[in-house]
Structures are given as C-alpha cells and as structure tokens.
Amino acid sequence: MDLSGRKALVVGLGKSGIAAARLLTAKGARVSIADQKSESELADQLAQLPDLHARHLGGIVSAAFDDIELAVLSPGVPTKTQAIVDARARGVEIVGEVELASRFIDEPLAGITGTNGKSTTTALAGHLLTTAGKRVFTGGNLGNALSNRVLEGGARDVCVVELSSYQLESIVGLRCAAATVLNVTPDHLERHPTMDAYVAAKARIFENQRAGDVAVLNAGDARVRTIATPSGSVRQLFDPRGDSKVDGIVAKRTGARLIDVSGHTYSLTARTLRGDHNIENALAALLLARHFDADPVALQRGLDSYPGLPHRLEPVEILDGVEWINDSKATNVDSVEKSLSAFPEGSRAVILILGGKGKGTPYAPLRELMRTRVKSILTIGQDAPRIAEELGDLAPLTACGDLATACARAQTIAKNGDVVLLSPACASFDQFKSFEDRGDTFKRLVRGMR
Questions:
Q1: DSSP string covering 220-253, please?
Q2: Are residues 346 and 234 in the same domain?
Q3: Which of 158, 188, 244, 331 is the right S-S partner for 239, CB 3.0 to 4.6 Å?
Q4: Is the Cβ–Cβ distance between 257 and 322 less than 8 Å?
C-alpha cells in the first residue's frame, strides 16, 4: 500500500489512533486528525504527533474529511457517524486501524475475539508460542496496537491479535491464518442494534480466510458453533465442558483440570488459569498454537509458566490468611459468573465487591453462583441500589459507596480462608478513568494494609 503523499485522516486519538497516525506518517502520508475532545484534553496525545497536517477537534464533522483520500477509524468511533457515512459516499476509503496495519504485515495473524476471555486467550496464545520458540508479536485490542508491529520492524513468525467487534466492523482484507470466536453473550448493544448484528460482527474474523486456514469455534456456545466459516478453511470445534455430542470436536475437557487437544493431554495447574472459563481459553489458545506447529511439550511448559494478565482474577496479596483478588476487568455479569465459578461451590468464602456504572443488564444470573459461594456483598458506585434490589437477599450486603470504604469493610469482616474479590459486573467510568484505574486503585489499597 503506497501512502506517500496521500492525504489521510485519523479519527479518534486513543492508543490505536496515535499508532495509526505514526504509521501513516512513517509511510509518507500527510496526516490530519479528528476527535470529539478539545485540544487541552488531548495535550498528551498531540505531543506524540508533532508532524500533523491539520487538526479537527471538538467534534467529528464533515469538513474534516474534505480533500481526504483515506480515513482510519479508532475502534471507539462508530462507523455510522454521519460525517463518516457521508465521506464514504463521496468515495473516501474508510478503514480501521487493524486493517491499515495488516496491509504492511508479512507474517500470519492469529486472531481472537469473543465477548469474554479474549484478552486472556490472546496473552496465553502469545505466551505459548513464545515458549515454543516462535518470534511473536502480541497485541491489538489487548493494548499494543497492531500498527506498532509495523513500526517496530524486524521479523516475526506470527502476530497474535485480540480483535473486538468494533475493530472487526471496519476490516476489508484483514486475514487471520488462524482465528477463534470464544463466546458471544449480550454486550455493546448500544453500538450493535441486535444480537444478530453483534454475532455477525464477531464472525467477520473468519471472513477473509483461505484454504488451509483454521477457524476455531466453541461447541459449548450455541451462537458460536453455528457461525459459518469459509469453504476451504479448517473448521475446528472445542468443548470446554467435555459433554457435547456435536460433530467435529478436536479438543475438549477430560477431567477437573485436564484437557485433550488433538490427541495430547495437557494439565492446567497454574493459579493464573483457575476457573472453568480458563479451560475454554486454554483450549482455544492451544488449538491456535498447534496450527503454527508449536511442540506439545513446550506448550505444557507455557501453560505451567503463564503469568496471567492484570485485572483478570489477578492475585494481589494474602493477608492473615485472606486472599485478595483483582478482577476489575469483569465489567459485565457474564464475566462475574465465570470468575465466581473459579471458587468451590458451597464454600461461602467470597466477600464480593460489586458495582460501578451499570450496563442495563439484569444481575439475576449471578444468584445461583452467589448463593453457594458468597459470604458478603459490598457495593460501590452508581448501580449499587439496583444490585441491592436484585441480589441483597442472598448474603449480608453493605452499601460502601466507594472502593476505599469497601476494602476497609472487607478487611474488618474477612477471616482466615476467605477471599476478597473485586469483580464489579459494571463499567468503571462513574468513579474511575478505566477498569485498569479501578484495579490499580484496589491493589494500592490492599498493599497498604500490609
């Protein structure tokens, strides 16, 4: 793709937008930017982009696209924004950041998407392939924009890329030599008008596959296992429960912490992979890694040494026999279900911190798990009253308001053998900049108790 002298516009200055602007500049394009935020709000981002041709700030308007040949969208920018619709109608090429980057990458891509677990599966697949001796770039929606792979140069054997539905909406030719859809449950319905539209966005991860590419699907998810895959791609199903009768299953659970992948048995003993949801993640990651000829013995070493990701059932401290766990990434009910399932049924040892900016979905699906696992409920944030209304009869509940108060309360009531779990089921934006900010605050508060 020759960008020399072309007039390009980057829409949205998040991490991927900055990386896209840097990539376009490096390839000789004349780069302009557009963002809803003001110049003062974007001071840090603009400082990283000294060679801009023009700035359109404070709104995404049609004038920003005047005389533009190529527009690159950050994932958070809806493709239905009127200025973008109008620009496309005038013939402006509109692509996403991952699509742009993929046009400059020679090595094969392994793509991971799903409502939950995609970050862990991406990090795990990257770790497994690295342990097996492959040269790997790991990034995408995980935090390291795919454009950075192009900017860093050098040779790699594979790029392992987390792809959100937002990113997949704007692909054109991006091809994944291996790809998986882990699961699809209600989320981001403010962007996708229906569940069918949301599933269709996820399914685009397989859209450009060719003969011999592998499509990995979760047989335990009814929506996922019926996703159509291209003729010629190798369709591989995995069963995280080990009880499915669906044809075509090549990997499945065979014991409490044992899985079989293409005839090889692997054990999941690392604390960073506890919980049934991580059986699902490991099955998908292993199938992706096997497609790139990773040795099974090395893959077991990778499972044993996987360090985990921050904010996903992240062990923080054990204080006076109480384990404190940061699961701030659990921003929806389905994620909390998976996290609670990692703890023994009947234990009633979990002190659960819930709350934040709710997503409008019911909390009732948590009731059965909470009934047998949760000792006490501590609520924070905007949706605390609704949580109390829907779950308050299951265990003693304290409305704490903020995270510092919740941690102090948890320290008061926790006993040896208990677990204090921050797993909010809500977005963080009512009290924090991000789920990372919320999780980091939790870790700082806990470590201050030493």
A1: T-HHHHT----TTSEEEEEESSS----TTEEEEE
A2: no
A3: 244
A4: no
Q: Quick one: pLDDT at residue 192? A: 67
Does 70 map to a domain? yes
Length of the chain (residues): 450
- As averages over each run of 10 residues, the pLDDT of the chain (450 residues) reads 96 96 98 96 96 95 96 92 96 97 98 93 98 98 96 98 95 98 78 84 97 97 96 96 92 96 96 91 98 98 96 94 96 91 92 96 96 98 98 98 98 97 98 97 97
- Side chain identity at 229, as an amino acid letter? T
CA angle 170, 428, 374 (to 5 degrees): 120
Structurally, the chain folds into a number of domains equal to 3
**Domain span at 396:** 314-447
Tokens for 244? 């499915």
Token duo for residue 357: 């900016």
In a domain, 2, yes or no: no
> What is the pLDDT at residue 259?
98
Instruction: Return the SS3 of 10.
Output: strand
Q: Which residues are catalytic?
A: 118, 141, 188
Helix runs in 132-206, H state only? 146-152, 165-169, 195-203
In this prediction the pTM is 0.88
